[in-house]
Design brief:
By secondary structure, the protein is of the alpha/beta class. The chain has one domain: Rossmann fold (3-Layer(aba) Sandwich), CATH 3.40.50.150. The chain contains eight helices and nine strands. The chain has a nine-stranded mixed beta sheet with strand order 3-4-5-2-1-6-7-9-8, sandwiched between helices.
Length: about 230
């Protein structure tokens, strides 16, 4: 049997999941946490924001936020996910080649998705981000890469006015190896607590357990954190 800690860190694994349409992690609706707490992401500011989507896939959330007037920047490794996002939402786009990425840009320029390795993305490409929606990025990674991810994404943050919504799962990982992985409060504090204020703003039992053992345990929670400047 393939070691999950190896398989899930392999970029080819995710490409194969998309090729086989094994993308149960993709939501076909706007995430209810985002819809409910959008004011916290924008800090109750009605002006248009630039919102960053790490590991963006083809999230419908991007199209929804763009329809509200916000500017969207995503990073996604799998090219098919980028293509599907634009095609399925009937958004015309162009593709250009940059140093480390293919850049998918909507015709109006409001949505930009960088197709390539997240760890190659830096502030050469975009200005620092004040607003971040992380649904499925941190939890997609095993523990060692979560440290690397947290260190890298912080280099993309604005030094002030940060609003980072982090969607996580909390469960006994002996019952399910992931992904999505369990990321508990103590780990979130360890990864981000030295520089950022951390608040739990939503916690509820997740109603779609990842396997039967988790279903029987009835102990799978989805939690939403807000990270902001201290």
């Amino acid at each position: 049997m393939t070691n999950p800690e190896t398989t899930y860190t392999d970029a080819d694994y995710w490409s194969q999941r998309w090729e086989k349409n094994e993308i149960s992690f993709h939501k076909s609706t706007i995430h209810p946490f985002l819809e409910k707490h959008l004011d916290k992401l924008t800090n109750n500011n009605e002006s248009q924001k630039q919102i960053f989507f790490p590991f963006c896939g083809k999230e419908l959330d991007m199209a929804w936020l763009a329809s509200l007037g916000h500017e969207i920047v995503g990073v996604e490794f799998v090219e098919a996910a980028c293509e599907q996002f634009f095609n399925e939402n009937n958004i015309k786009y162009t593709v250009s080649i940059l140093k480390n990425f293919k850049l998918f840009t909507s015709q109006n320029g409001k949505i930009r998705i960088y197709n390539g390795d997240f760890f190659n993305f830096n502030l050469e490409y975009e200005k620092a981000f004040e607003c971040v929606w992380d649904r499925g990025a941190l939890v997609a990674l095993p523990a060692d890469l979560r440290v690397k991810y947290a260190e890298h994404i912080q280099t993309l943050f604005s030094g002030q006015n940060l609003r980072y919504l982090l969607d996580t799962y909390d469960y006994d990982q002996e019952l399910y190896p992931g992904p999505p992985h369990s990321v508990r409060m103590d780990e979130v504090k360890k990864l981000y607590g030295l520089k950022y204020k951390i608040e739990v703003i939503e916690s509820q039992i997740h109603n779609r357990p990842f396997n039967e053992r988790l279903k029987e345990s009835n102990n799978l929670y989805e939690k939403l954190y807000l990270l902001s400047n201290i």
